[in-house]
């Protein structure tokens, strides 16, 4: 089978298209024939070694496909089931071995590409808006990178929950997409000081919550955008990691709350995984959550997908498709 492998950390060029044996599932595992693979920013952290794994390995944390074989003791799914998963590394290939407990059945109304597109970013948007900070009607919410994969989904959910949604994006084209997703105000943070804009747009009050996936370049001003006792959910570092923070800063800026959440801790067991994933998949099925699969690449072009994602030129979801 064809896979993408990396035997050293580095730039997109370390993603090599290689041929390996199809593996056999061990106890508790399933072999999934992959139909569509989601590309996520976390794949960049794996590739560069920011989140190191044992080399060589196949990156990729999300896919949809069909169960080809199951190992001993697997009860969650059976051969032939259409399934999707997230948060298990090794999806950039024609087949992947996945713990059966991580596989979620795909409803008939949802196609493979949509399933691969919504698992990781959809469940992230779900936990951020329902669990990390439970958005209430009338809350003022700031979402950075509003036209990105997570950004477009989180904006839709915040809008659905009745929030006044402010987003930041880098270009006018991205601003348009963000508005279509439900942003009330879009700030071009490459042209304007987003802190000043947030203060202006909220009559100096600030926002209840900031969802910050950009990190290094936005963190300090994100804190300044919060109302007293506001929440900063720092959930990524697309521009680089945030340096260490003195907790006293949270006090002086208004008794703020700071959390650094990650999806794994919001799908702690199968029950929680199925409940979050099924809600997202059902919203996709009914059209309540609109996916924008803006960029698809053949599996062999994984390095191009990474180049595009890191250069800030993409919007919405990127997928890799195994060649038929
Ligand atoms: P995106 O599609 O959002 O792509 C990243 C976006 O970040 C870019 O399009 C760009 O938007 C913005 N950005 C700002 N500065 C930079 C920079 N210097 N370099 C690159 N991009 C920059 O990616 P994803 O939706 O896959 O992920 C978004 C973030 O959420 C990532 O940081 C990821 O790690 C995090 N994440 C965290 C999870 C968690 O559970 N903690 C789960 C899933 C994702 P613009 O051009 O508009 O500035």
TrEMBL record:
Domain Enoyl reductase (ER): 10-320
Lineage of origin: Bacteria, Pseudomonadati, Bacteroidota, Cytophagia, Cytophagales
SUPFAM superfamilies listed in its UniProt record: GroES-like, NAD(P)-binding Rossmann-fold domains
Listed Polar residues bias regions: 302-316
Coiled coil, from the record: none
Source organism, top-level taxon: Bacteria
Name of the protein described by the UniProt record: Quinone oxidoreductase
Native species: Rhodocytophaga aerolata
A Pfam family: ADH_zinc_N
UniProt-annotated stretches for the region Disordered: 302-324
InterPro entries according to UniProt: ADH-like_C (IPR013149), ADH-like_N (IPR013154), ER (IPR020843), GroES-like_sf (IPR011032), NAD(P)-bd_dom_sf (IPR036291), QOR-like (IPR047618)
